[in-house]
Amino acid sequence: MTPAATLLAVLALGQFDPYVRSRVTPGDDATQCLYWTVPSITWNQSTLGNPDTQGDTEFDAVRVSFQNWEDIFAACGNLNLQEGPRIAERNVGYLRDGENHNVVLFRTKVCSAVVAATDACWDAETCANQYDCWDDDQSTLAITLTTYDKRSGIIYDSDISFNASQYAFTTSNGPTCFPPVTTNCVSTDVQNTATHEIGHFVGLDHTRAAGSTMNPSAQTGEVSKRIIDSGSRDFVCSVYAKGAPSQACLHPVVNEELGPKGGGCSATGASSLGPALMAWVLWRRRRAREARS
Asked: Which residue among 15, 73, 76, 121 has its CA within the 20 to 30 Å range from the CA of 286?
């Protein structure tokens, strides 16, 4: 078997595990897992919320999503996920010498529609922050951008962005929406999406285990990921066991450099700190085909 075939076989085996930990190099067991070591993490919602969601219900849906994870951590884990005040901050990523927030926000414009093709931000990969727009794949529902130490895997910062430029995010219970109707029905559910992204926020990668919150796709109208599955619960209890240090996959070596941007729902490692992206995409109903992150 060729090295490439061996790697594909290893990746395939891991796809159906009850949970899969995010790593510096996705799918490479020789690289460190990503995890938090601080006892408490404060997260903040952007004051803008999502203008197209009814009332302030998007804030409540995100809050409930974090609380459901916090309930598991309170039962068997060592982290406290604490909501901070809403903030005007619209930038994602990590500032080495600045104030950092773990931001949750909705991007309502696509960068290609508001940024000139000649703008230097494309090469610098700063368009999203500079113009407050969505610059990732338009089929992606949301992105979690995590900054971590590449050698130790220790997470320093994590931000969640929702792609409201392409998707109608809803907070209702009810039947699946059929455009143009997006009220009193479910289109792209905020809580369903947020619960999945918070899994990335705490160090989970995608798995294809049946019924997992961390499955990499979602149908329009899906709400099943609002409920955190047993495999993801086991991850919290094992990796962040109450009364014990958070668990690395390899013996950690702390380094003060941050690393480069990755792809997918997102993560960053420090060079040695960088970003890693974890992207989640919609399973398009009509074609019953999974769009991959």
From this structure: 15
